[in-house]
Structure formats: C-alpha cells, structure tokens
Amino acid sequence: MDEQVIRDIVRSVLSGKTEAGVKVPIEVSARHVHLNKEAVLKLFGAGTELIKKRSLSQTGEFLSEQRVKLVTHKAEIANVAVLGPERGKVQAELSVTDCRLLGIDAPVNLSGDLTGAADLLIVGPNGIFEAKSSAIIARAHIHAAPEDAKRFGLADGSRVRVSIPGKRPVTLDDVSVRVKDSFIFKMHIDVDEANACGYEDGMAGTILGPGHIGVSAAPGSSGIVYCEKLITESMARELIKTHEGEICVSKTAVLTPSAKDVLLHAGVNVRRVG
C-alpha cells in the first residue's frame, strides 16, 4: 500500500478527521485599526466611545461606526474601519498592497504582536494620533476554541497548511492557530490572499495538517514539537535535512519502523513531550 495512503488512514483514525480533511470557514479581514483609549479621545474628542455598528464573528468584537484615515509621507488611505472594543495598544492591520501604497515596511505578524511594526499617522475628525510601531501585515490564522483544537489535533501557536478553493485555488503553508475559550472556529485571510484565490462568500478551506511545522517545545525540551500524529519514513528524511541531534514529538505520535530507522541512522534522538 502506498505510504501516503497509509499515512492518511492512520491520521484519520487517530485524529477523527474526515478523509477530505477538516473544513474551516473562511472570512476576509479587510484593513482596519484597533485603538486604545488615548487614541479614541484624540481622534474623536473627549468623552467619546466607540459606537457599535455590528458584531463580528469572534465573541465580543465589533465593527464601530467610526472611520479614520491612515497617512504616511507617501500616501494616505481613507475610510479605514475601526474595530472594538478598545485595546491596550494601537494597531493597524494592513495588506501587502496597502503597505506598498503607503510606502512602509511592515512585518507579517499575528494580531497583538507589534514586533518591528511600522509607523504611521491616524487621522480622525477631531485630531491626529502619531501611531508609532503600530502597522503590521496580518498573518493568516485560524481561531479555535479548546474543544475544536482538541477535536482536530490543533495546538495554540502551531502552524498548519490550508488549501483554499476558488477560481485560482491556493494553499497557504504558514497559517497560525490561535486557541482561546471565546473563539469561534474560523480562518481569517486578508484581501490580498482573498483576491489571489478568487474568494467568494461562504467559502471554506481544508486543513491539510501541520506538515513539518511545529510549536515551541515544552519547558525542559529543546527545539520544535512536531504535531503530526504519524511520522513516516519520507517525513523523517525531510526532518533530518534541517535537524541535528534531536527532534521533539508529541507523546502520542506514531513513528513507523522505517521512520525510526532513518532517524537512528542519522543519529537523531526522538524526545516525546506533552
């Protein structure tokens, strides 16, 4: 029997996934900003609060009635959505196209991670807010509640591959997973990614699995914890190309005999964690 077929069968049995893979509803997240209290007051005036226009899919989040303009030395983008509720830090989530238009070099980060974020000005009807280290390109990500994560074999901070159908089907290889009690099972992509695949409302992606991308190892371990529940010979051969000495796998992972042989002959120790 073909190794890939064996891998798919075992993964299906161990994880409860369907043969076609886990389907995740996709939503497009257009450019928007998150504001803190200081920015809200400066942009919209003393005593102002964000006015809810409609709820978003994630619990507690909403689109506000307010809009702002983003300005840099090169260009400006008007009518940018403001999402609520207020946050601790100001953040602008943009696409690569937006950043090129504005002439800024923003990193691809998850929401809330402002490491290396770019500077810009946010203009409101009542004033201007200098938003230093605020602009990022939002990384494609999946929101999952703990029960969904457990059911589908996902882990907070892990990265998965997702196949997206459309007029021009694409596969995203670096989709982050975020797990939280309040999360609704959804995948968020930006407008550039949506246009690339010809996104249409109601579209769902297929999680193809973690592949060779893992999560940070637990305390006392080293390297990366690989989330695959089955590691085959071909996967082991790929792993030894980029790892020396040791790899960490889930304590429930199944290694085929041939995979064990490959790792043994390469001098790579397997540590089980979790």
Walkthrough of the structure:
The structure is a single chain. The protein folds into three domains: 18-27 and 140-209, Barwin-like endoglucanases, CATH 2.40.40; 31-138, no CATH class; 215-273, no CATH class. The protein has helices at 3-15, 37-44, 96-102, 146-152, 191-197, 233-242, 257-265; strands at 22-28, 32-34, 52-55, 62-71, 76-84, 91-94, 108-109, 118-124, 127-138, 141-144, 159-164, 170-179, 186-189, 204-209, 215-216, 224-226, 230-231, 246-250, 254-255, 269-273. It starts with a helix and ends with a strand. By secondary structure, it is α/β, with parallel strands linked by helices. Strands 1-13-10-12-11-14 form a six-stranded mixed β-barrel. It is built from seven helices and 20 strands.
How would you describe this structure in keywords?
elongated, 20 strands, six-stranded mixed barrel, 39% strand, 22% helix, 274 residues, 7 helices, Barwin-like endoglucanases, alpha/beta, six-stranded mixed β-barrel
Count the strands?
A: 20
Mean pLDDT: 85
Q: Pairing-aware structural class of the strands and helices?
A: alpha/beta
Reading the helices and strands in chain order gives HEEHEEEEHEEEEHEEEHEEEEHEEHE
Number of domains: 3
Shape assignment: elongated
Count of separate DSSP helical elements: 7
Question: Sheet with the most strands?
Answer: 6 strands, mixed, barrel
- Spatially, the strands of the biggest sheet line up as 1-13-10-12-11-14
**What oligomeric state do these chains adopt?**
single chain
Poorly predicted sequence stretches spanning 5 or more consecutive residues? 5-20, 211-223
Rg, Å, rounded: 22 Å
Strand content: 35-45%
CA-CA gap between termini: 31 Å
The percent of residues in helical segments reads: 10-25%
